[in-house]
Amino acid sequence: MTVNIITVGKLKEKYWRDACEEYLKRLSPFGKISVTELAEARLPAEPTDGETANALAQEAKSMERYLSAKNTVNIAMCIEGDELDSVSLAKKLEKYSVGGCSTINFFVGSSFGLDDSVKEKCSMRLSMSPMTFPHQLARVMLLEQLYRAFSINANTKYHK
Predict the structure, then answer these.
(1) Which residues contact 89 (CB under 8 A, 6 or more apart)?
(2) CA 152, chain centre distance (Å)
(3) Residues 6+ apart with CB under 8 A from 105
(4) 2-153: CATH homologous superfamily?
């Protein structure tokens, strides 16, 4: 299975990059896992609603090519998405794999989220929590949960 995390923005702090690299290393035995960082649209310090909408639309355009691949499940990471526990996420990933899906794309937007056009093209919306987390931490959390899900499905001792 191939898992792609398509995210807006780069991780600036070394500790976030280090955490992501650690989980990517741990995930490597389970399949091809990649993180693609797309450019974040520039916004003023206090953007208007229109400026924010235009920025989200611009970011959505850069995601379009990832949304149309065959045998791919697209999942939007957004606050209004379904909240799953780790075992349920593991079951969902296993169901996709057994069902013939060769690739899963997770879409992580900027600090302003994802454009509705991206969410509409995704077959699932997933939320980490109703709490708000730093954008950079969300990527680390997603990688950790993917590692946990694959570990659950492989019956390893990581998940307790």
Answers:
(1) 126, 145, 148, 149
(2) 19
(3) 3, 4, 5, 6, 66, 67, 69, 72, 73, 74, 75
(4) SPOUT methyltransferase, trefoil knot domain (3.40.1280.10)
Specify the pLDDT at position 114: 96
Residue type, 145: Q
Residue 140, judged by CB atoms within 10 A of its CB (0-12, 13-18, 19+), counts as buried
Structure tokens at 101: 């899906």
Entry field: residues in the chain:
160
State how far the alpha carbon of 123 is from the alpha carbons of 104, 107, 118, 119, in Å.
11, 12, 10, 8
Q: Which two three-digit tokens encode residue 143?
A: 């990688």
Q: Is 143 left (phi over 0), alpha (psi -120 to 50) or beta?
A: alpha
Half-sphere exposure at residue 18, Cβ-oriented, CA atoms within 13 angstroms: 3
- Six-digit token string for 53: 């909408």
Residues of the chain with pLDDT below 50 are none
Q: What is the pLDDT of residue 160?
A: 67
